[in-house]
Amino acid sequence: MNKTNYPNQTDGAYGIKPAVSKAKSFVLWREVVMAYAAPAIMAGIGGLVTADKGLQLGALTTIGGTSALVALMLGLWLQSRGGRNQWIIGTPHLGVVAMFALAGAWFGLFAAWVTSDLLGDMISINHLAWVGRVWIDFPLSGFIASTIVTWRWRLAVTTNFPFKGDGKRG
């Protein structure tokens, strides 16, 4: 009689999906947002708990802003040149993250020196309260952002393209 085949409406609803999640690729804008939001939220909470208005303002400016800037610069470099450097791929994950975290802290110290000393020579910054905070905010923000971005970039690279030196066979 009527031999029309209708598609099964329940195939997609009750289908069994694999338990293994697919590895996400490295997306720079997500990493920059996380590098801004994570330290800014934590420092903001600390500022609320201690009722420190300077910390609350610093959370959104010097802490979050520096983290986002370092994450953007490092992420762009890692995407364009990081995979070409064999020492980054061949060195163990934790070693690479530790090296870039220290480099981020050093970059933060350099940025604090430029901001407080060199900028102070060009303009009068004695009345700016945030300049005294940059010696802690910039290196700490550089350390946090470098750690987050390098960890996630390295994880994405070794998951999508496993290398022999990282313990995964491809």
What would your notes on this structure say?
The protein is an all-alpha fold and 170 residues long. It is 69% helix and 0% strand. It contains six helices and no strands. Helix 5 packs antiparallel against helix 6. The longest helix has 30 residues, at 93-122. The radius of gyration is 23 Å and the shape is extended. 29% of the residues are buried.
Overview in brief:
The chain crosses the membrane at residues 32-51, 57-78, 90-114, 134-153. The chain is an all-alpha fold and 170 residues long.
What attributes does this structure have?
transmembrane helix, membrane, 6 helices, extended, single chain, transmembrane, mainly alpha, 170 residues
Structural class: mainly alpha
Cα shape = extended
Helix amount: 55-70%
The SSE string, one letter per element, is HHHHHH
Transmembrane segments: 32-51, 57-78, 90-114, 134-153
Keywords: Membrane, Transmembrane, Transmembrane helix
